[in-house]
Structure to design on (376 residues):
């Protein structure tokens, strides 16, 4: 059965929230909590029953992620769940061989293993044209060589979906292939990267030094790593992050309102301040169905994802403005950013990182066409 939202909320408000302060201070990823999430069925929500999942859909997953972020106030652990689910589990379910599914999905769904993806590289991010990590095919299989940066859960992952260049297509375009890489083997090294936020979700610089892979490690079709595993996976991930932030924003707004009322004895906003609060809270309510719709498109019809880019741009930039507003409100109204509000405000930096990525796409669409004297 699919876990109910109340069951998701109970785990988040209990074990997750109760240990959040200590885990943030220790900058700790909790394997114990991860296994509890697996036992509760969280990692199988959107996975078909025939491969060991709970048989739910994208909407159930989006609502569960939102509830988990709202009640747990832990965007780091929520991001780890999203990465595990969207970039690793779903990629294997959709493109893996029967052997890959039977070997990896049970361990990932149960929480025994942590799954992640290694795509981003220095100066290019996840853009396919800039990927320099290579997988060279020889008589004894592939040899993986290169470096990946800002990999979510890179220091704790047991299995990675890695995108590497395996050749060159006609016209000089890189041929990219996805691989399933177990991190316990030789030739793999992960070094922690301190982001100063998302303390419960470790990020890493990953180096592959002559790591050996047999041909059975290829995920999907050779040469289709970007169109199959990478592009569609990041659509799933980014849409789920938008859904999670609705939950985190809701929790942060509630904490601010309660902090304000404690300081002043009542929640007595008036005039422009009241109008601003109403505007931002009504916008947050409006984000909920939009974010859920994006998740459904990303999971169920990835070919339509780029048709939803305008909505992604709108939400991404709106979220960044919302995060700045709540931060300014805390300062202006002298609200004590006590736990867990302090952690939530810090983790909202992820919104600003995402805004930078989305801004580039928005500029390409709505500014660059007019860059040459208004000519289109």
């Amino acid at each position: 059965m699919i876990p109910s939202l109340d069951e998701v909320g109970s785990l988040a408000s209990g074990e997750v929230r109760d240990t959040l302060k200590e885990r943030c201070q220790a900058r700790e990823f909790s394997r114990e909590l991860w296994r509890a999430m697996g036992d509760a069925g969280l990692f199988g929500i959107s996975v078909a029953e025939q491969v060991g999942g709970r048989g739910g859909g994208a909407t159930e997953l989006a609502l569960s992620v939102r509830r988990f972020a709202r009640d747990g106030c832990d965007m780091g652990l929520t991001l780890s769940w999203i990465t595990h689910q969207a970039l690793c589990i779903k990629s294997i379910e959709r493109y893996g061989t029967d052997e890959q599914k039977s070997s990896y999905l049970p361990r990932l769904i149960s929480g025994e293993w942590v799954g992640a993806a290694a795509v981003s590289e220095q100066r290019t991010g996840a853009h396919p044209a800039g990927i320099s990590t290579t997988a060279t095919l020889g008589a004894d299989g592939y040899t993986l060589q290169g470096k990946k940066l800002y990999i979510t859960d890179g220091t704790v992952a047991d299995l990675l979906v890695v995108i590497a260049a395996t050749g060159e297509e006609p016209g000089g375009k890189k041929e990219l292939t996805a691989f399933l890489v177990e991190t316990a083997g030789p030739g793999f090294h992960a070094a922690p990267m301190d982001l100063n936020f998302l303390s419960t979700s470790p990020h890493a610089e990953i180096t592959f030094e002559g790591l050996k892979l047999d041909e059975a490690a290829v995920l999907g079709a050779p040469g289709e790593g970007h169109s199959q595993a990478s592009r569609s996976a990041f659509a799933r991930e980014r849409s789920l992050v938008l859904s999670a932030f609705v939950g985190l924003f809701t929790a942060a707004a509630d904490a601010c309102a309660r902090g304000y009322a404690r300081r002043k004895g009542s929640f007595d906003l008036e005039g422009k301040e009241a109008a601003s609060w109403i505007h931002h809270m009504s916008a947050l309510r409006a984000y909920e169905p939009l974010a859920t719709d994006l998740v459904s498109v990303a999971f169920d019809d990835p070919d339509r994802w780029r048709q939803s880019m305008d909505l992604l741009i709108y939400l991404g930039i709106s979220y960044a403005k919302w995060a700045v507003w709540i931060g300014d409100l805390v300062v202006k109204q002298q609200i004590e950013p006590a736990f867990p509000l302090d952690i939530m405000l810090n983790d909202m930096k992820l919104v600003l990182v995402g805004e930078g990525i989305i801004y580039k796409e928005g500029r390409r669409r709505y500014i660059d066409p007019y860059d040459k004297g208004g000519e289109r």
Observations:
- The chain has a mean pLDDT of 92.
- The beta strands are 115-118, 134-138, 141-152, 159-168, 174-182, 188-193, 203-213, 218-219.
- The chain is about 55% helix and 15% strand.
- The chain has three domains: 5-114, 117-223, 227-370.
